[in-house]
Amino acid sequence: MTAEESDLVLVKRVQRGDKSAFDLLVRKYQHKVVKLVLRYVRNPAEAEDIAQEAFIKAYRALPQFRGDSAFYTWMYRIAINTAKNSLASRDRSPIRYDLDLTDPEESHGVQTKLQDPDTPEGMALTEEIRGIVNSAIDALPEELKTAIVLRELDGLSYEEIAAAMECPVGTVRSRIFRAREAIDKRLREVFEGGLGRTEEMV
Predict the structure, then answer these.
(1) How large is the C-alpha radius of gyration of the chain?
(2) What is the rounded distance in angstroms from the CA atom of residue 9 to the CA atom of residue 4?
(3) Beta-carbon neighbour count of residue 12 at 10 Å?
(4) Which residues does 28 contact at the CB level (< 8 Å), separation at least 6?
(5) What is the DSSP letter of 131?
């Protein structure tokens, strides 16, 4: 039985009134949901509260869950919306994001420019690049920001992001490409070559 199938079994148990089955779902996904919410809020305690609120919303909405998407992508969507609503109501800025600049597939061009990131100069340069990337992500429209965060930081597939954002896979690819281009453009203003990407969509 796959993870999705076992989740669906638990969901059906909850729909039949078995509250303990929902506890199993919470235990399974709590860490991932809190980690996702932390992309939007700075405070871990606040992230825990928002995650708990998201699970409460999910529990209340489970009677209407038909299994059209995997439970965890449905849960991610609720968590994202809960986090964004929390930010909007409190008028706070989202957390700064730290892209993994050591990922050779994503940023080999930047990494070669650092030479030795363990030196004081290299560490300062790494912080400068991280700051540029963070500000570039913060400046993105909401749908681009969410797509790039789910892809780059949470490692979701294009299909999983499409389910979480309720849009076609092609739209996800386009949003991620546009987000990467915007980040690369900001980096090119400081470092010749940017992220070292080709112009074609990945």
Answers:
(1) 19
(2) 9
(3) 14
(4) 7
(5) H
38 Cβ neighbours under 8 A, 6+ residues apart: 44, 47, 95
The tokens 């940017």 sit on which residue? 194
Q: Are 114 and 125 in contact (CB under 8 A)?
A: yes
DSSP 65: -
81 C-beta neighbours (distance < 10 Å), count: 13
Each residue's pLDDT tens digit in the chain (202 positions)? 788 889 999 999 999 999 899 999 999 999 989 988 887 887 888 889 999 999 999 999 999 998 888 898 899 989 988 998 888 876 544 444 555 444 444 444 444 444 444 556 556 667 777 788 878 888 888 888 888 888 887 778 888 888 888 889 899 999 998 998 888 888 888 776 555 544 444 4
DSSP string of 125-190? Answer: HHHHHHHHHHHHHHTS-HHHHHHHIIIIIT---HHHHHHHHTS-HHHHHHHHHHHHHHHHHHHHTT
Are residues 90 and 177 in contact, defined by beta-carbon separation less than 8 angstroms?
no
Tokens of 65: 């869950």
